[in-house]
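Before going further, it is useful to explain how the protein records used in this thesis are read. An example of such a record is reproduced below.

***
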Amino acid sequence: MSLTPESEHLNNHHRSTLHRLFQHPVSHNIEWKAVVSLLEAIGSVTEQPHGKVAVVVGSETEYFDPPVHKDIDTQAVVNLRRMLSGAGYGLEAGRDGSTVQ
């Protein structure tokens, strides 16, 4: 796996979460707290009224409903992929072709 230059400042935990977000097929066990930690490392995360969370990464802003359980759902993964790719945090295709951009 090759990360974009913008992600070089991320720790191994953040890189692992980033990889799992771009894994194909979609992983169904990505913890919300790991996603929040990654997003805080590359942008800002602010709790909004009525339980929503505002995430700003680069010029991209997205609003998320935290999951009821510990893991995010497939739609959140899709939204995060779009947001992260738009902000320059996508993954280049891995050696085995298992990641998407």
Summary: The CA atoms of residues 52 and 65 lie 5 Å apart. Residues 93-101 have pLDDT under 50 and may be disordered. The beta strands are 2-3, 44-47, 53-57, 60-64, 91-92.
